[in-house]
Amino acid sequence: MAxxxxxxxxxxxxxxxxxxxxxxxxxxGEFVVLLGPSxxxxxxxxxxxxxxxxxxxxxxxxxxxxxxxxxPRARGxxxxxxxxxxxxxxxxxxxxxxxLRTQRVGRAVIESKVDxxxxxxxxxxxxxxxxxxxxxxxxxxxxxxxxxVREPTALLxxxxxxxxxxxxxxxxRQDIKQxxxxxxxxTIYVTHDQVEAMGMGDRIAVIDRGKIRQVGTPAExxxxxxxxxxxxxxxxxxxxxxxxxxxxxxxxxxxxxxxxMIRGGDFSEFSFRVDRSEYLGSERIxxxxxxxxxxxxxxxxxxxxxxxxxxxxxxxxxxxxxRNKDLRYFDQDGKRTDxx
Amino acid sequence: xxxxxxxxxxxxxxxxxILDRREVLGSIFVAxxxxxxxxxxxxxxxxxxxxxxxxxxxYDPSWRxxxxxxxxxxxxxxxxxxxxxxxxxxxxASQLLGLILGKFGALxxxxxxxxxxxxxALIILPWAVPIALASVAxxxxxxxxxxxxxxxxxxxxxIDRSEAPNWLGNPxxxxxxxxxxxxxxxxxxxxxxxxxxxxxxPQDIIDAATVDGAGFWRRNYQIILPMIFPIVAVGLIFGIxxxxxxxxxxxxxxxxxxxxxxxxxxxxxxxxxxxxxxxSHGAAISLFMLPVLLLMVVGMLRFIRRREI
Amino acid sequence: xxxxxASTLREVSFYGAVAFFVVLTAFPFYxxxxxxxxxxxxxxxxxxxxxxxxEAPTLEHFRYLFEDTLFARWLLNxxxxxxxxxxxxxxxxxPAGYSLARMTGRSGEALGIGVFLTYLVPPTLxxxxxxxxxxxxxxxxxxxxxVLVYPTFTIPFCTWLLMGFFKSFPRExxxxxxxxxxxxxxxxxxxxxxxxxxxxLTTVIFTFTLTLQEFVYALTFISxxxxxxxxxxxxxxxxxxxxxxxxxxxxxxxxxxxxxxxAYNFFLDRFISGITGGxxx
Lengths: 340, 309, 281
Ligand SMILES: Nc1ncnc2c1ncn2[C@@H]1O[C@H](COP(=O)(O)OP(=O)(O)OP(=O)(O)O)[C@@H](O)[C@H]1O
Ligand SMILES: [Mg+2]
Known about the structure:
With 340 residues, chain A is of the alpha+beta class. Chain A is built from 8 helices and 19 strands. Chain B is flat and about 70 Å long. Chain B has one domain: MetI-like fold (Orthogonal Bundle), CATH 1.10.3720. Chain C is mostly helical and 281 residues long. Chain C has a two-stranded antiparallel sheet. The radius of gyration of chain C is 24 Å and the shape is globular. Chain C starts with a helix and ends in a 6-residue tail after the last helix. The mean pLDDT of chain C is 86. Chains in contact: A-B, A-C, B-C. At the B-C interface, helix 1, helix 3, helix 4, helix 5 and helix 7 of B face helix 1, helix 4, helix 5, helix 6 and helix 8 of C. Strand 5 of chain A pairs parallel with strand 1 of chain B. The structure holds adenosine-5'-triphosphate and magnesium ion. The site of adenosine-5'-triphosphate has 12 residues of chain A, from strand 2 and helix 1. Magnesium ion is lined by residues 42-43, 158 of chain A.
């Protein structure tokens, strides 16, 4: 059964169509990531799920009940905010206990659950502090404990890592995923960072301008993008697109190799002019253009950092190739097609 | 994909959660304040308008409609015309004086110096302290016999005891006195407003102007003043409204005299409507404030909106 | 050398100007103080230097004020009026300010400005009809009439002040509370109120000082001495026949002024940002 089911949700602010008909089913226990560029309506959609906004139209069903007109407190979902929204005048203990108190849970139960949640997140030693006495990472854990403590039907997270520095972010990513596994809570996670999305999501929903473009596992999203938007939004550098008779031909930079590196199988050959290359330590990105094709973006190739390719000098033409199974075709409207 | 087309059950009726609707609770939250203001500002205002076209007095509380008769009678009264003139003079002169003192004082307080906090606290006093109490102190300082001002001037040899001015007894001096006291009362407010405005101008804008070669005066009048204008305008509107409609200073210092030389609209309205009990004429006199008030409200609307940028 | 003279001159004129302003603003209050402490013979002798004591200072005026006049009663009246008006104002303006800032959207902004503009409606326009209304409620000559009428200006002012504050209050905290199971009302009580205590304190102080400063309504509605608030009592009631009791009047004015002056200095910055509508942060 779907823990959260959104049916054709639309949200219009005065003159902005923030969410434009999203349909999404999130099964029990799944970790779904909503991925999309800034301003595409991710936060708005999340706020509709937890009831902070009322959708303009569409149905929202949580655990089998239509909750369109049910206020947040009766929906049983938890949300972790971007800057955590900890209650500054409460201690950590009371912050975590708050969602239980509002449900009029007995005192003994509250105590044991706070205990459980704080142990789960390793914040037992912080229980008597106040939020302003915590570091960013600690705050994030407290917020997570508060969200998990009442075992919500669904846990909503809105860019929870954006306030952390890069190092902390990597470990926090690990942690969140791990706690989610252990507790098994249905999770909807919003981010515009594709590394987070690929690394954490059981499934990813790619959103653009208020619409879902594709829902799928990270591998599906990456390997079988449903349209040009998904193809170019996911992956760094993004998929190369060649325009040809109005349609498009796409391939990933790591599949675009010097011809001599390809052994076996059918492949298509291109003449590639190298413009410049970037050495990134573990790999090398080569920028250039392909003879006979227009492309709005420079074509990129991702090659191993060390090897024969060091001979690729700017201004030279080289024979490059892509295996035919790695070629993707898109029609005039940007939709995936099987054949050219 | 949609596993459940038909939901199992509705959780609850809409009414159970009626107070969880923002608009509903929001309306309930504003209602008391709006009602209070409507009942005790809106209704009295309409009542005032009605009084002014009726023949209502305390002794004869009739609601008889008399049209614009009251206004016509008032306009034919030379005392009223003098009052009107006094009101404008009082407002204009005291605000001008207050603004000049305020701008000057703000420039002084802008510069850090030892004891600035204390100086600021002392300069705020005239505005903070209830004007009725300060007016009484001024009345004592303007006393015909024991005026400390006169004593100082006599001792310094500026004037002779025999020609010592009777501040509140001479029509021109009395007007000067109420103007000065009112300006004295408002200029600290002007200082505070100027200071607040100037400190809210981002330093990097001032720096940029300096780098671009703007000198002190140019910075002041072409950069800072236009930027703080909305704030200063709001402050000035407050000053005008409260001065134009005031009666306490005049009531306490001169009681409108001598021979109506300092009578202002608010005072006249009080005199006629409350003391003489001629409510309808009093209300009509007060309503002469309305055009200026409306103008100020329009100004306020413009500047209050502009602040949001 | 010339440089030094010029800069010294500049310093001297600067401090001279500061001194001028301080004397201008503070002298009347010094005058209150010195008058209230002088004995009558000293006070009413034109040959004495008025700026300082020519005879021993005395507390006689203060004693007289408290023992032989209704001054203590006026103070009490002012306190009662102030406390009641503060209570009425808080109960109405706190939810109203919050609602206009958060719950009523676009129309809230307009409504807020509308409420604020009523603060510009002067007492001298309303005192006639209000005095009739007060009379018909049987509150004529009673300080309760002031308790009824003062909120007409404290509510608009405080609603505006609080609205500005609530707008700057982080939304996330109340929203977190709402998602965590609070009703809207619960979030207001449990999160918004405790976290706005500084703003509420400012509101309380200013409401109180506004009631102390008010003069016109008090003058209009109240003529019996025992019902007067302190400002009105000191300004109008300490005259016997034609004789002013300057020592007592100044002593009373001083006592009533001090708390207001202190309150203003502590809360000035908040007041300014309130009155200019949050234009200044
Ligand atoms: N309360 C509101 N009133 C009007 N427009 C809004 C409101 N909230 C969001 N929007 C608009 O709706 C669109 C979607 O906003 P939303 O916050 O959902 O984007 P987002 O995907 O979360 O972006 P980001 O990654 O930057 O957080 C934006 O264009 C935004 O300006
Ligand atoms: Mg967002």
